[in-house]
Specification:
By secondary structure, the protein is α+β, with helices and mostly antiparallel strands. The chain has helices at about 20-30, 90-100, 165-170, 225-240, 295-300, 310-315, and strands spanning about 10-15, 30-40, 40-50, 60-65, 80-85, 105-110, 115-120, 125-130, 150-160, 175-180, 185-190, 195-200, 215-220, 245, 250-255, 265-270. It has 6 helices and 16 strands.
Length: about 325
């Protein structure tokens, strides 16, 4: 039986200032900061995770904030748009919220759905759509009540250098179903109920440039360690040269670059973000893996402080 991912596990992007990042994703979007840690490969840089109340797979948007980062250029070989999903009837709330914060946005139609497209403070391209499927978030913060809150990912738009090859990977390796085509986009659907709708530009896109305001990688879900090992074997058999399994503390990861230039990861659902701190205080303390604990003081001194705060527009 062919393996099938249930959809997106997380999406990771480059941004600049951590306070600006937290103000946008917690303050404006109302997501919960579920983990404050470091980039395990570059410990002088934060790795911040935002999601629903638990940062469940399918909800976690993650960032490497680096104030000195150069600005990137969104293009081929990247995720073009990250799609968030909200409950049915909540889109008007988000449209009003965008206006309240004086943010530019576009209201577009795609495959019979209405999307609000906008950018974060670093130029990362985002959109919001409303759908019935997927569990509701239980988290509320600032001006975002739980009944209007982002549930998690709706999916993404992929920009590929070789779309036919990327589509072949989505369908024949990742186990997604090709379901529709419209105005230069092809839609694929995974079997889960969050992060399950992937659109891809059918025409090749000019190559993007990595930097702030661009996505570093998109991660797909594996059920457990056994499923994960099988994914690694299947990626290798497909000829895409997966990495070794990497311990990312809150999940295990395998990386590979598909032939359209996009960096894919496959990540395990367990163990999750409550591994090293209580659910009620997720994201409040800088958490380090044990191999970095001896260097905590030095690491903390090198990181810019920030706070999760209610924004002025929501205090008025």
């Amino acid at each position: 039986m062919k393996q099938q991912t249930s959809g997106i596990h997380h999406i990771t992007a480059f941004v600049t200032h951590p306070q600006k990042n937290v103000d946008f994703y917690a303050g404006f979007l109302g997501l919960r900061l579920v983990k404050k840690t470091i980039n395990f490969d570059a410990p002088d840089v934060y790795h911040l995770y935002f999601g629903n109340e638990a940062g469940s797979p399918g909800t976690a948007m993650t960032f490497f904030p680096w104030p000195e980062a150069r600005l990137g250029k969104v293009g081929g070989g990247q995720v073009g748009y990250t799609t968030f999903v909200v409950p049915m009837g909540a889109l008007s709330f988000w449209e009003e919220r965008l206006r309240k914060f004086k943010m530019s946005y576009y209201r577009i139609q795609r495959f019979g759905e209405t999307y609000l497209q906008f950018q974060d403070k670093d130029g990362l391209q985002l959109e919001i759509v409303e759908r019935e499927e997927g569990p509701a978030s239980k988290w509320s913060f600032g001006g975002v009540p739980a009944d209007k809150a982002i549930k998690g990912f709706g999916g993404a738009i992929l920009y590929s250098l070789q779309p036919e090859k990327t589509m072949h990977v989505l369908e024949n390796l990742m186990g997604m179903e090709r379901v529709a085509e419209e105005e230069g986009l092809v839609r694929f659907r995974a079997v889960g109920d969050l992060g399950n709708v992937i659109d891809i530009n059918a025409a090749p896109m000019p190559r993007g440039q990595e930097g702030a305001g661009t996505v570093h990688h998109i991660a797909w879900r594996a059920k457990d360690d056994q499923d994960h090992r099988q994914w690694q074997e299947n990626v290798g058999r497909y000829g895409l040269h997966p990495t070794d399994i990497v311990d990312r503390q809150y999940f295990n990861a395998v990386y590979f670059r598909e032939n359209g230039g996009i960096l894919f990861e496959i990540a395990t659902d367990p163990p999750g973000f409550a591994l090293d701190e209580p659910m009620e205080s997720l994201g409040e303390k800088l958490m380090l893996p044990e191999w970095y604990e001896p260097y905590r003081t030095r690491i903390e001194q090198g990181l810019l402080p920030f706070e999760v705060r209610v924004l002025e527009e929501d205090r008025a």
